[in-house]
């Protein structure tokens, strides 16, 4: 039996948050491209190849911190984007707010990590973690409601 899906106009906040996550991830990729040029580490070297092995220890660490910051984003973006969109179907304003906090956490994470002290990424990491848990929880709760379990 066909079902009509009515999407709350506030779902747009979830869509914007998801798009902003993609843009933010793309921008962090740009900082890796700049680091490749600065430290002369061409593709396909990801920080452990023959070109990176020619760097001083200090430059090697700086390059790898930038590379790792971007890779962490790439590793997590599919979960974040799908969660913000799915949560947004059930709780659009909550999902939009959690998506915004995720973006802010990612900004703090990158700023702290690349700033010279990798431990400084911890506050951003906690915001990202809590935002992810919130988005996953909201999506899961909404799904269970839809199935009639709650």
Automatic annotation (TrEMBL):
Pfam families in the cross-refs: MAPEG
UniProt membrane topology term: Multi-pass membrane protein
UniProt keyword terms in alphabetical order: Membrane, Transmembrane, Transmembrane helix
A Gene Ontology term for the protein's cellular component: endoplasmic reticulum
Subcellular location: Membrane
Main location, first listed in the record: membrane
GO MF terms held by the record: glutathione peroxidase activity; glutathione transferase activity
Entry keyword ATP-binding: no
Domain of life: Eukaryota
Transmembrane segments: 12-35, 84-104, 124-144
InterPro entries linked: MAPEG, MAPEG-like_dom_sf, Membr-assoc_MAPEG
Coiled-coil features, chain-numbered ranges: none
Family matches, as Gene3D superfamilies: Membrane associated eicosanoid/glutathione metabolism-like domain
PANTHER family: GLUTATHIONE S-TRANSFERASE 3, MITOCHONDRIAL, MICROSOMAL GLUTATHIONE S-TRANSFERASE
Name of the featured protein: Microsomal glutathione S-transferase 3
Organism this protein belongs to: Tieghemiomyces parasiticus
């Amino acid at each position: 039996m066909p079902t009509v899906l009515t999407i709350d106009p506030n779902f747009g906040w979830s869509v914007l948050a998801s798009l902003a996550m993609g843009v933010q991830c793309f921008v962090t990729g740009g900082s890796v491209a700049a680091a490749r040029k600065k430290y002369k580490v061409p593709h396909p070297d990801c920080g452990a190849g023959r070109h990176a092995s020619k760097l001083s220890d200090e430059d090697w660490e700086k390059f790898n911190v930038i590379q790792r910051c971007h890779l962490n984003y790439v590793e997590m973006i599919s979960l974040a984007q799908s969660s913000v969109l799915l949560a947004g179907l059930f709780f659009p304003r909550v999902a939009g707010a959690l998506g915004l906090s995720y973006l802010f956490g990612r900004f703090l994470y990158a700023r702290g990590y690349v700033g010279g002290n990798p431990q400084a990424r911890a506050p951003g990491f906690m915001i990202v973690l809590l935002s992810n848990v919130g988005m996953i929880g909201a999506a899961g709760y909404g799904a269970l409601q839809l199935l009639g379990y709650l």
